[in-house]
Amino acid sequence: MDRLPFILAHPADEYACGNYRVRWPFDMLLRSGLAQGVVSSYFLDPRTLVDLAPDVVVFQRVLELDQLSAMRWYRRVLPHAFLVFELDDLITDIPGDNRFSGLFYRQTLDRLQQGISLCDRLVVSTPALAEAYASLAREVVVSTNALPNVPWASLTGRRRQGGGPRVGWAGSAGHLGDLKILYSVVKATADLVDWVFFGAVPNVLRRYAVEVHASVSIDQYPAKLASLDLDLAVAPLQVHPYNDAKSNLRLLELGAMGYPVICSAGVGAFDYDLPVTWVENRPDAWIEAIVAAIGDRVALARQGDALRQAIHKDWLMDGRAPVWASAWGLSC
């Protein structure tokens, strides 16, 4: 029996990026019988590396100087291994009001170039990222984000549970700048809809909400999102290169619940062939779109069903095993 290729994967964190881009694709490849391997949150010593003899090593968003040094001896110790650099954000151009912008160095581009140059391939989540960083890499491959079948394929939000239409937003502290788009919109529509917020929400919006739910761990996130019971979800994003390079993950997560979605127009993250409603980032346009949507809640529910069906058809991870295997240098 032929030996399965061995993957050593180093995710950058334990949050969405590390899971969606490394841990969950890795698990999918093992379940599919396409690879074996191990995931490690820390870099290994040379002796352990030689003993493992990985065929593929996946590094995610390596920027620390000690990690870059470790990558260099990985390259020396594993001359025949296929090294992959994984990246899913435009970290050299983050909006100033994104709270995570201060976490990156002024030398981010230089450090990024060092790490990518040590690898055989750069794997990114969107074509915009591939274009932005193509000059840094020997080769760039796009492997788009998708939802793990478990639990996303089996969850769905309830709708029309009585009372006014429930309109909601879910997001992290990194999206507070995007939320500013809705400040006057929420105030203007607070008497028409029940606003529901999940995640990091400023006080200026809390006062108009019927419910505010605190952030939860990533393993609890899908079930919590389903429990919001929304009639309509909103996904505002600033028009900015950073958001142009982001994936459509927010649409996938909301749509998998069966929630119909209104999202910002003119932003690359939402420029996908999905049955959502796009609206320009003007308060009057957002207000008009929300009022029109809640005017026919039967039609609104149908839109949510159509979005969920589209995601189940094309955007679940188990159907992407050959794509991920190829992106990480495995021959299927």
Write structural notes for this entry.
The chain is of the alpha/beta class. Helices cover 39% and strands 17% of the residues. It has helices spanning 16-31, 46-52, 65-77, 108-117, 127-133, 149-152, 176-179, 183-189, 203-206, 221-227, 241-244, 249-256, 283-294, 297-314, 321-327; strands at residues 6-10, 36-39, 56-60, 82-87, 121-124, 140-142, 166-171, 194-199, 209-213, 232-235, 261-264, 277-279. The strands form two sheets. Strands 2-1-3-4-5-6 form a six-stranded parallel sheet. Strands 9-8-7-10-11-12 form a six-stranded parallel sheet, with helices on both faces. Helix 8 runs parallel beside helix 13 (283-294).
Task: Spell out the key features of this protein.
332 residues, alpha/beta, Rossmann fold, six-stranded parallel beta sheet, 15 helices, 39% helix
